[in-house]
Amino acid sequence: MKKKNRIIFFITIIFLIVLGQLIKQIIVKNIDSSKIIIDNFLKLSFVKNTGGAFGLGNNHIWIFILLNIVIITAIIIYTQRKKELSKLEFIGSILILSGGTGNLIDRIYRGFVVDYIDINDLFKYPVFNLEDMLIVVGIVITLIYLIKKDCRGRHPYTKGM
Fold first, then answer.
1. Which residues are catalytic?
2. What is the dihedral of CA 60, 61, 67, 69, to 10 degrees?
3. What are the φ and ψ backbone dihedral angles of 139, each rounded to 5 degrees?
4. Domains in the chain: how many in total?
5. For the chain, how many helices (H) and strands (E)?
6. pTM for the full predicted model
7. Of 48, 107, 117, 140, which cross-links 112 as Cys (Cβ 3.0–4.6 Å)?
8. Domain annotation covers residue 119
């Protein structure tokens, strides 16, 4: 990855991690149960998630910490060793690393992940956070890249990233 893009890569990751941690700090200090934001659609609910995605695997925090570290390390090694990243690889990696690192910080320093976005009145869906959204969108973008690469037999959208 070119030096300019490496700087953009890490500054964006740091910005998203700090943003996520600030939001979580506001939630922890100001939301004790639920606060309706948009009636019958969106609530802010402070939930201590000791498991993984969707609350699976409760009370196995060290497994999730280790898994998180392995995935983050693998993505960093991949992105830094690769000469050029496609735009989709670049964006997908930023989002996954930002979300994964933000949730890792919670697991290490709090012993749980702070979840707060609650759309359960609209859909039967677990409470989640910004970092979870970043990870999911990053994975979708990465899958799109892989599908396009496989269909074309080459790297799509590679323009010197």
1. 115, 132
2. -170
3. -65, -45
4. 1
5. 4, 3
6. 0.86
7. 48
8. yes
What is the helix (H) or strand (E) element at residue 37, kind and residue range?
Answer: strand 34-38
For 80-92, write each residue's pLDDT tens digit. 998 889 999 999 9
For 61, the domain range is 3-152
The pLDDT tens digits of the residues spanning 2-41 come to 888 899 999 999 999 999 999 999 999 998 877 877 777 8
In a domain, 36, yes or no: yes
Residue 97's CB: how many other CB atoms inside 10 A?
A: 24
Q: Is position 161 within any domain? A: no
Angle at 120 between CA 119 and CA 123, to 5 degrees: 90
Position 23, amino acid: I
In the chain, what's the furthest Cα-to-Cα distance? Answer: 52
End-to-end CA distance of the chain: 6
Q: With contact defined as beta carbons under 8 Å apart, do 21 and 102 qualify?
A: yes
Query: Which residue in 99, 136, 97, 130 sits closest to 115, CA to CA?
Result: 130
CA 98 to CA 15: how far, in whole Å?
Answer: 9
